[in-house]
Amino acid sequence: MSSHPETEQRIREAAFRALVEHGYADLSIKDIGNELGQNPSIIYHYYDSKDDLLRSMLDVFVEIFVGQQNEQPITDAEDELRRFVKQILHPTSAQVERAIFSPPSDIETAVSRVYVELWAHATWDDDFRKETTQAEDSLRTMITRILQAGIESGQFQSVDAELTADHICFLIEQGLHTRTTTNRDDAVERVLTIIDGIVADISRED
Question: Which of 34, 38, 57, 93 is the most buried (most CB within 10 A)?
Fold first, then answer.
């Protein structure tokens, strides 16, 4: 395979948009090439297969939702936790454009669909499962870090940070799944309300 980061990024962006439109089962390299605006054969210079390309897109998810935040100091853990959860469930175009230059117009639906498609494929593919596990670990690690910062600063009670992070991650994932696979228009808002309750429960009163 060749290595040219800018071209690889453009291919991943095209794959993201094509996956949103076609779904995993119907997605072909030709569809991705059409979205890219180039001969599909160029994709094989950078990726061995459709699956190889789509696995690389999981890195895009991590960049969008975690990115450099793991390196930034946490000054207000409660505010940071609420903001972090909200940006996953209600991603904005400006946020996603950090990793995808030209995202679909309905970015919330796009992100949810890609999440469901890739995680569903991991049911049958061990290599995909390794990648989705790493992606979820990155999310869980970030939430644990925020919780631990809040405990150390006295904002949060002395809870089990890892177990609480698991709980919040499960809720986030269920919200993304339910928004995409049902007609429950209130799915994400209900998840945000539940997580707000968790944050309130572990926060110390002034």
Answer: 57
DSSP, collapsed to helix, strand or coil, labels residue 40 as helix
Reference 11, options 40, 64, 119; nearest CA is 40
The radius of gyration of the chain from alpha carbons, rounded to an integer in Å, stands at 18
Q: What gap in Å lies between CA 132 and CA 151, rounded to an integer?
A: 29
77 to each of 34, 81, 155, 181, how far by Cα in Å?
44, 6, 7, 32
Q: Which residues are 156's β-sheet partners?
A: 203
What's the CA gap between 175 and 135, in Å, rounded?
A: 17
Q: Which residue has the tokens 């992606």?
A: 135
Q: Closest Cα to residue 70, out of 128, 5, 149?
A: 149
8-state DSSP, 205: P
Residues 6+ away with beta carbon under 8 Å from 14: 32, 33, 35, 36
Structure tokens, 121: 């494929």
Q: What is the pLDDT of residue 6?
A: 80
What gap in Å lies between CA 155 and CA 37, rounded to an integer? 51
pTM, 2 dp: 0.85
How far is 32 from 90, CA to CA, in rounded Å?
26
